[in-house]
Amino acid sequence: MTRKTNEKKPEKQSQSASGNRELVRKLKEAAAAGDPEKQFLLALRYENGRGVRKDPEKYMFWLKEAGSRGHVDAELLLGREYRDGKYVKRDHKLAVEWLEKAAGQGCPEAEHSLSVYYSYAGYLPVDIDKAFYWEERAAKHGLAEAQFGLSCYYSSVKKDIKRTLFWTRKAAEQGHPEAEYNLGLRHLYGMDVGKNRRLAVFWLEKAARQGIPEAEYLMGTFCEKGEGVPQDLKQAAVWYKQAAWQRYADAEYALGCCYLYGKGVLKNEKQAVKLLTEAAYSNIPEAQLLLAMCLLRKKEEGHNLREAVLWLKDAIDNDVKEAYRLLGILTYNGWGVKKNKKKAAELLGKAAEKGDKEAKKLLDMIEPPKVKEAKTGGKKP
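and the corresponding structure tokens:
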């Protein structure tokens, strides 16, 4: 049976190739006769090399032929080609001309592109009214990207919450990931809508499944804490991983904690330190503190003490009270930093002022209350 199947394959491939050549021949005849649809289809074949040899010049030739006869998809592509400069020299004036032709036929993608042109300086003078006009047309024609863009206009420019929410929902219902995330956040924190954990999870999960890292991270926190969904540490780690792969710093910290404590994954301190380092470099204070603590545990490697000191200093810059205490201890003992009891007392004092009870105990051991009173002349500091 296998040999018979193999014997038929060349014949089938030959028939397919023959049929494809005939299709291209007829397409070329119709395009040459002035059929704009066939000109457009032929242009696409020259662009992607289907049935013909890939040829950018012929692609642009037939695209212009179709566009000059009012083919709306050709007009849109011509606008994009002159905008992006992939196959022709970039020319924003021509790009706008072709996009306006397509937009005049009600093409929502062209309308949205024109809105973008008028929104940002550089190619055309910024004109918010024209940008709004084209975005509204595209949104009403059902383009999700334009619907979300219009919601942003109503939020930041028009200051119209009702229409902001209306267009955000429209875009989210069509699966626009940023709109789903926006709507999820609104329900999570009660921003212009009532707080609703169920709806928040519903929209944030949709956004997360489309790769929005902030949504992936939030879904991880929901699964870890059992908020709005059943508690599931393994699934929490999965969501954190997906966000961390996109270099989302909060997720890198959360996943680092998972590996450090074995929450939903096997314990792996090496992997935890790697992730915490990435998050610490992104200025996540909790990561800076936890990374320093991990390094302090490796006492056999002297350089870790110095590195831990540096991370504690970064955490102190972010006003982390535990970092004041730990650096105070290291400074008192001269571990990884020059020994300085006065500086140690200052650091412990700051930690104590911020409510660190352990720092208060240590400070009393370094400077008993009677000594403090003698220094201040009996006055309360």
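(Above: one complete record from the training split.) The chain has 21 helices and no strands.
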